[in-house]
Prior knowledge:
- The structure holds 2 protein chains of 2 kinds.
- By secondary structure, chain A is α/β, with parallel strands linked by helices.
- Chain A contains 9 helices and 6 strands.
- A 6-stranded parallel beta sheet of chain A has the order 2-1-3-4-5-6.
- In chain A, α2 runs parallel beside α3.
- Chain A is elongated, with a radius of gyration of 18 Å.
- The termini of chain A are far apart.
- Chain B is an alpha+beta fold.
- In chain B, α1 packs antiparallel against α2 and α3 runs parallel beside α4.
- Chain B starts with a helix and ends with a strand.
- The interface between A and B is medium-sized, with 25 and 28 residues.
Amino acid sequence: MIGPKVEAGRQRILVVDDHEAVLGGTVSLLKQQYPDSDLLTAQTAKEAQQIVANTPLELVVMDLSIPEASGETARTETGINLLRTVMQKHPTLNIVVQSAYTKALVRLKPAINAHEGGFTIADKSLSLKEMLIRVDWALQGIVYTPREMRIGLELKPEWLEVLKLAFEQGLQDKTIAEKMNVAERTVRHYWTQVQDALEVYPETGKNIRIQTEMRAREEGLID
Amino acid sequence: MRDSVLQELFTLRRGLELTALDPQFPAGVADRCQTWLSQTETLQQLLEQLSYQLAPPYIEESLPLALQYLLEPWKLRYPDLQIQLQILANGLAESAEHNQILVTILDEFFQMVLPSAASHSPLQVCLHPHAQGGELTIQLSYADETNQLAIHQMPELQHLQQVVRWLAAGCWTCEQLHQPPFTDRWHLIWQST
Lengths: 223, 193
């Protein structure tokens, strides 16, 4: 485990990858993009769990194919288990999964749907620029999963209810939360999930809520 | 391949990307990096495709997603066919081996029948539960009766039906409509493993 001395009040990002060159490359890239952040690193699931348990973090960027402990073989299953544990214990932590085989994440689909932090998937075939966009989205609390992980339009009833209350009744998040008897944060979580299901993501100069409404109407989800 | 070759290639690619961005190198280096980068990307895509041929995606995780993935290249190859997938058995949990057999059988079947399918007609694939297992229904139409009869006389089709019986513990039957639109409705039924 390596990393700078953690300073109070600064954004902390943990990068998990067993390939030293990838780890170094990702850290140097994130350092350029987020110069005021503290970058921490881990090369095994064990190290990552220790850091996540003991350090308040804003973001984890992790590979799926990692070893459990130093000297062991890297396995996708290990990364999947680490991710499952991290999401259970830290439901609001922002996460980017950077992997050569992101399709395995479909095993965690219910957990991803329930996760209240940002969650984006960056296939390792993405360019640096695209990967940085996924990091930025995760930090904004956005959810991005590839379309091929879904069969058609997969929507939970509560996500649909948010759409109806917002666009058919014109309610704000606070009132929607009261009507649905949930926290306002939960309503924001429903928004990110429904936007991922509708494949609506931030675009410069575009209002994401209006884009969501347009897509929902296209799909016939709201009147 | 996914845990080593593709990872190493990713490392190489990121190294080239970072070098191309590094201002301490002269502009010529960045240009050469861009050339190598595009070659690396091509190699990466080819290796990914090879890995998907060797181990089709979602086989271990989800039969519906594996079927969806299987249909994508067929949609591109036969854009005139309206290929539709309907999933009525989302919770169907089969072993990876069983999913692999089903997906391979279906792929082989498409190779046999799709060249004879009537263009601009629907090809419907439906996955639904059946007794203690599952059922895949495949409905397609042929241009004429000659094409339809030719399919049913293919020895490869009989071999495939035997494969279903032996490897997937299932059966494969067909309802035939011998008048326009010359439709076959295939039922591939299996017991869960």
